[in-house]
Amino acid sequence: MNAMRLLQVILVGAFLIGLYFVSLFLPGTLDGPMSFLSVNGPVALEQKSVFWYTVGVSLFLMVVVGAVFLYAIFRFRAKPGQDFDVPEQSHGSAKVEVALIVASCLLLIVIAIPNAKALFYSASPPADKEAIKVVAIGHQWWWEFQYPDLGITTANELHIPVGQPIDIEIKSVDVIHSFWVPRLAGKMDAVPGQINRMWFQADDAGTYQGHCTEYCGDSHANMRFLVMADESADFDKWVRTEKKDAPAPASVQEINGHRVFMQGCNSCHTVKGADAMGVVGPNLTHFASRTTLGSGIFENNDDNLTNWIKFPKKMKPGNLMNLDQVNMVLSDKDVDELVAYLNSLK
Ligand code: CUA
Questions:
Q1: pLDDT band per the 50, 70, 90 thresholds, residue 323
Q2: Ligand 1 within 6 A of 171 CB?
Q3: What are the structural domain ranges in the chain?
Q4: I need a labelling partner for 14 at 20 to 30 A (CA). Which of 100, 160, 164, 272 fits?
């Protein structure tokens, strides 16, 4: 390999490495809503520090090996006018080999210790603080959230109190999904027939975006969710509302809407207190208090809700909500009444 060719290879390598570092600083990478580097709470913080630590050790290694490599290339290359000779051949050096093995082992230990500590730290919530238990269940293509100690079941919007550990059991009813709220903690798979555990804690109130991160079929890309971290008074208020039955339909339109609902929607959806006990689709008891619909992909408003009922497969490819299956044929009036009823489920 001549010097020119070598220089080209080095320049291309430096360009690619540079590109990688520039990409780190593009808008969104460091501070976007899905950035695992813009962390909140102790679990994400621990995982971020171990990430940068490991990147640091790897960079150190890259610089040292790269420097030795470049030194060897330039120091021992054939000088202009010099005849090309085969260099002196040698075989094996116990000193060099032992030194390299020891150095590799040391580097592995230096990386492994903080990583193992972070793994154990992330595995279960601290024993000295009361944690809130949540069961997160992956469905094609939405998330069910149960609070077994509070008697609450909801979907796609997980409310948590600020400053308190959330102890999460992760399950799936169909295929493998993965539960990920990048700003709060690393991901955890939802595997059918298996219970995985993780925990996180949000230290600041706000909304944290989550996403399924294991390819799970047609609408994998639409399997989002939100974690809403509330101040503890707000969280208590939310819990009190969620524990209640759904409000009874009041207006004529709502009463008609409830009647339509009970002609088919009820076979898949639960509305507590309204005799609807289906468990295939999301629990809709307090549907109107959610900000999104369709697993976090649409704003919860009349237009989107109307379209969702009329054209479920257009709104979400592969949508398992199928009105034909429960022999529902809805007129525009039926849909309006259904929308009015669902909007009353505060
Ligand atoms: Cu669920 Cu991807």
A1: confident
A2: no
A3: 3-78+91-123, 132-231, 252-343
A4: 100
Query: What CA–CA distance (Å, rounded) separates 47 from 37?
Result: 9
pTM of the model: 0.86
Please compute, for residue 253, the number of CA atoms within 13 A of its CA located in the half-sphere on the CB side: 12
For residue range 172-187, what is the model confidence (pLDDT) as tens digits? 999 999 999 999 999 9
**CATH code given to domain 3-78+91-123:** 1.10.287
Residue closest to 192 by CA, chosen among 212, 172, 210:
172
Of 261, 238, 257, 237, nearest to 249 by C-alpha is: 257
Q: Let me know if the fold of 3-78+91-123 is the same as that of 132-231.
A: no
CA distances from 23 to 5, 19, 51 (A): 27, 6, 17
First to last CA, the chain: 73
The residue whose CA is least distant from atom 1 of ligand 1 is 177
What pLDDT is attached to residue 315?
93
Q: CATH: 3.40.50.1820, 2.60.40.420, 2.60.120.200, 1.20.810.10. Which one for 132-231?
A: 2.60.40.420
Contact 229, 206 (CB under 8 A): yes
Fold (topology level) of 252-343: Immunoglobulin-like (2.60.40)
Mean pLDDT throughout 248-255? 92
Q: Pick from 246, 227, 247, 230: which is nearest to 238 by CA?
A: 230
Determine whether the shortest distance from the Cβ of 220 to ligand 1 is under 6 A. Answer: yes
Mean pLDDT of 149-164: 95
The answer to whether the CB of 223 is under 6 A from ligand 1 is yes
The number of the ligand 1 atom at minimal distance from the alpha carbon of 217 is: 2
Asked whether 216 lines ligand 1 (CB < 6 A), one says: yes
Nearest-angstrom CA–CA distance, 122 and 96: 39
